[in-house]
Design a protein that fits this description.
Helix 2 packs across helix 5 and helix 3 crosses helix 4. The protein has a 3-stranded antiparallel sheet with strand order 1-3-2. It has one domain: Winged helix-like DNA-binding domain superfamily/Winged helix DNA-binding domain (Arc Repressor Mutant, subunit A). Helix content is 47%, strand content 10%. By secondary structure, the chain is mainly alpha-helical. It is built from 6 helices and 3 strands, in the order H-H-E-H-H-E-E-H-H. The chain is globular, with a radius of gyration of 17 Å. A hairpin with a 2-residue loop joins strand 2 and strand 3.
Length: 135
């Protein structure tokens, strides 16, 4: 991309690299990717996420706890139901880009190039989760 450029990027600080590695570690699980992908369109309950991921609610809750500790999702309680949403719009972009990149590994034209899917994740993430509270 910057093949002719003499501009060199400053290396990332070790703590920032460690955090990025942890994000990728969280994405290295098919169930967690399914959960995060389902949350791109908005908030869902644990039972709805379990159904979409094809997993038991207890297993889904364990994955959600890990995602919450990694600050990829947020939760709220309404009565006895717990709802989850993506922590911020960067998570939606990360998941969408990962899925789109994976589509390029196949032999066919990726669906995002055919117009079968939106070019970008929906911008319906509401509230403080859209802000940049963390660097």
């Amino acid at each position: 991309m910057n093949a002719g450029s003499n501009v060199q990027k400053t290396p990332l600080p070790d703590d920032q690299v460690d955090l990025a590695v942890e994000v990728f570690r969280m994405l290295a699980d098919a169930t967690r990717v399914q959960i995060l992908y389902a949350l791109i369109d908005g908030e869902l309950s644990v039972s709805e996420l379990a159904e979409r991921a094809g997993k038991a609610p207890a297993s889904t809750s364990q994955h959600l706890a890990k995602l919450r500790m990694a600050r990829l999702v947020r939760n709220r309680r309404e009565g006895t139901t717990i709802f989850y949403r993506l922590d911020n719009d960067h998570v939606a972009r990360l998941i969408t880009d990962a899925v789109y990149n994976a589509e390029h590994a196949g032999p066919d034209t990726p669906s995002h190039h055919r117009g079968d899917q939106p070019a970008h994740p929906p911008a319906n993430l509401e509230g403080p989760a859209d802000e940049h509270p963390r660097p």
